[in-house]
Amino acid sequence: MSQLVFRIQIPTATASVDTIGVPRECLLLRNMFDPKEIEAKPDIDIMSKEDVQEECSKCGKLKHIFVDKNTAGFVYLRFENTQAAIRARQVLHGRWFAGKKITATFIAITCYHGC
């Protein structure tokens, strides 16, 4: 008779937890594109930028946008103020884009410039 073995993982205090972060003027969008698509679509950063800028323009002034092609679809956004970033997070977080579910997390300005 064979035995079934079950593994149960219990989250620990050090486990990675997806949080929205403290509201700030900077947002990190994850999962905006698949890094494997970059070879097939070298202008993916331009396409992603245009799509994000269009959507974010409804929330407030976007001061800067950076599409990091060396990540798992990360797009960094810096708004003129925290209120615009909060509105953008409400609009973008959990939305589907190109078949992928976006997560939007507030990040510190120091991380925006140096992470």
Automatic annotation (TrEMBL):
Q: Which Pfam families match?
A: RRM_1
Q: RRM domain spans which residues?
A: 25-109
Q: Which InterPro entries match?
A: Nucleotide-bd_a/b_plait_sf, RBD_domain_sf, RBM39_SF, RRM_dom
Mind telling me which GO cellular component terms the entry cites? U2-type spliceosomal complex
Keyword Repeat belongs to the record: yes
What UniProt keywords are attached to this protein's entry?
mRNA processing, mRNA splicing, Repeat, RNA-binding
An example of a GO molecular function for this protein is: RNA binding
Q: Which family does it belong to?
A: Belongs to the HTATSF1 family.
Provide the species name.
Rosa chinensis (China rose)
Record GO biological process: mRNA splicing, via spliceosome
Highest taxon in the source lineage: Eukaryota
This protein is called: Putative nucleotide-binding alpha-beta plait domain-containing protein
